[in-house]
TrEMBL record, chain A:
Membrane topology, as annotated: Multi-pass membrane protein
Cross-referenced Gene3D superfamilies: Cytochrome c oxidase-like, subunit I domain
Keyword tRNA processing included in the entry's annotation: no
Database matches in Pfam families: COX1 (PF00115)
Main localization (coarse): membrane
InterPro entries per record: Cyt_c_oxase-like_su1_dom, Cyt_c_oxase-like_su1_sf, Cyt_C_Oxase_1, Cyt_c_Oxase_su1_BS
Name the record gives this protein: Cbb3-type cytochrome c oxidase subunit I
Compartments in which it is found: Membrane
Organism name: Roseomonas acroporae
Residues in Cytochrome oxidase subunit I profile domain copies: 32-534
SUPFAM superfamilies linked: Cytochrome c oxidase subunit I-like
Automatic annotation (TrEMBL), chain B:
Protein's recorded name: Cytochrome c oxidase subunit 3
Top-rank taxon: Bacteria
One biological process term in Gene Ontology: aerobic electron transport chain
A GO molecular-function descriptor: cytochrome-c oxidase activity
Location of the Heme-copper oxidase subunit III family profile domain: 1-210
Main localisation: membrane
Family: Belongs to the cytochrome c oxidase subunit 3 family.
Pfam families reported in the protein's UniProt record: COX3
Cellular location(s): Cell membrane; Membrane
Cross-referenced InterPro entries: Cyt_c/ubiquinol_Oxase_su3, Cyt_c_oxidase-like_su3, Cyt_c_oxidase_su3-like_sf, Cyt_c_oxidase_su3_a-hlx
GO CC annotation, single: plasma membrane
Organism: Roseomonas acroporae
Keywords assigned: Membrane, Transmembrane, Transmembrane helix
Amino acid sequence: MSGITADDAMAEAPQERQGDSYLTAETGLASWLLTTDHKRVALLYAAALTAFFFIGGAAAVLIRLELFTPASDLVSAEGYNRLFTLHGLVMVWFFLVPAIPNTLGNFLLPLMIGARDLAFPRLNLFSWYLFMGAGLLLLAALLLGGVDTGWTFYTPFSTGYAHSNVLLAALAVVLVGFSSVATGVNMLATVHLLRAPGMGWFRLPLLVWSIYGTALVMVLATPVLAAALLLVVAERAFGLPIFDPRQGGDPLLFQHLFWFYSHPAVYIMILPAFGVVSEIVPCFARRRIFGYTFMVYAILMIALLGFLVWGHHMFVSGQSLYASLVFSFLSFVIAVPSAIKVFNWSFTLYRGQISFQAPMLYALGFIGLFTLGGLTGLVLASVPVNRHVTDTYYVVAHFHFIMVGGAVTALYGGLHFWWPKITGRMPPDGWARFAAVLMFFGFSFTFFPMFVMGFLGMPRRYASYPPEFQVWHVLASAGAVLLAAAYLLPMGYLAWSLVRGRRAGDDPWNATGLEWRTASPPPRDNFRVPPIVEEAAYLYHPRHEGPRHEEQEPHRDQGGGT
Amino acid sequence: MSGDVAAALREPWDSLRRQREAAEFGVWIFLGSEALLFAGLLLAFAVNRTLHPAGFAASGRETDIVFGTVNTLVLLTSSLAMAVGSEAARAGLRRLALRALATVLLLGLTFLVLKGFEWAKDLREQLWPGAGFRLAEPGARLFFGLYWTMTALHALHLAGGLAVVGWLSWQGWRGTRPLGSPAFQVAALYWHLVDVVWILLYPLLYLGGRA
Ligand SMILES: [Cu+2]
């Protein structure tokens, strides 16, 4: 393998730094719980998200265990409803939505644009407390017996019929939405007003752009979800008729409001993943990103078009066929910018000097899984096929390919890529590569069979099923064992690396972003000398030449102007 | 004033001008978000109004137009006072700023008290769309479902605004927050949004069916 290794980087950057890192600048529990340092808040979020990932993951394990046999033997049908609702609520709002923006994004955004902190550091901490408050509400709802509406809270079931803690769960989601809005406002203001001198809009790394797009969607979509859920609360708790068809209300109105948020929410989950992959791929291909400007416009296009396709969740709801056709068409259109991104990552690899270190393996896995998830999205976007596979495992497989195969894989990739920056220690590369490969195969074994059984007619959200589907369910459950191992393994060796891992240099991967121009881990104020930017992002090789293949290219850091 | 500027300056900003720009930018984004929150409710209102025009017109005649109109005037005046207060704070006119903010608090409280009386009257007149609801027209229950939800959510926002303005006035009065702090302009922008929401609610809830 001709690629660079962390050892080379180590030799170049001997680590003798004066002054404290952000981790040691202050000590004590209060210095963490009252911190306004965006890097520490990122770690607070990471801790909370890890806990929720375990809770949501435990529910997934129970679901896969139940589905191992056709009969509903482990849990009752009622208990099964509560299990998948728990899994959905926790994973969507308490893990996937904040996963990358609030951990990696929180940590990296100021570093990548050369700022000392986010625009509103106290608001950042406040949003974490909101998140924790919402999390406690949700846990209360679960401990008091759970929720059985599914994560979608469809009326009139949620308002009139469900005998479970719908109110607590809905309020938890409203509250976590406010935390999302606070984060979005903060990140938008940061990108607009705190860029370092010379850091023009089209010099921003793509992770910054994708978080910018995500923040826009968060700020504009989340309040509509809050409105929809507040109306559910009004109807359920106070008996105020809003959606109730017996009083002339329209339950579909809820679906429109809900999906007006929840389709864009998919982009809240996947756009940051695009950003992470756009950082990793050029670094390990030693190539400039192909088509930077198009990548930026693709992000903005996705953020915009994401607001115009919600009706594809309602093809069988009885909405007008003409509306369905328009939503179908727009859903095809939104595949174009996503495809542009996939093609541009592929072109970045073309003639690159690729090295298959762990972050790169994750990124490549992401590209494969996301592409499959995206293509099956097109299948679902076509109205006649959608009729056939609506509410089947085909849909389950599709969105798990995007949100788990895509977003979670990218999260793990980003975690490995920036681990040295966050902690100052290298992840053990052998183990990390093994985990990356295991994650790809574990994921594929778990979710690919769902396409097949979904197409054959296996409906979602049932605890029992006809025996002819068992072979696919057994495959999926067996794959889930591998997948769980692949998710747990990094938690083990990353924790190990905190103590025993090799110390990382400032720039262990020879990457270009501003975040690599400061110590690992960075000091409290991020940069000892405020950076000045005179170059575009991703200067891995001179502009009009590809990288030479024999020796490693000298590259220029983005902040090389100082 | 330079001590004042230093006291108002916060991390991670190097200049108060930039910090103020960020605070106002941030609050505009937040107001956009709030606008979409109410837009969701207004959409629900619009849909049901289209489905049940007669019931909505009949219900619009039942709300109390006197309370509604007086409250509209109270809120508009409070917005004027808020604008004066925020500009006076920016100009460093301490006495005027504090008086204007006190007026805002007074008018805001007046709005809530009047709203409380109005709600009590609505309840007496059996306009709560539960058991014993007075109107029979189809859609009237939906109108009042939305009436209670929207006025309650608006009142909550107003109460939040009162808390913020009260807190800032107290800090300004005690001298713990310099008048140069961008927080005064931020609070003013939020107050105006609460006002604008009411200006949308007023014709929908009080004037419909009365033309
Ligand atoms: Cu969708």
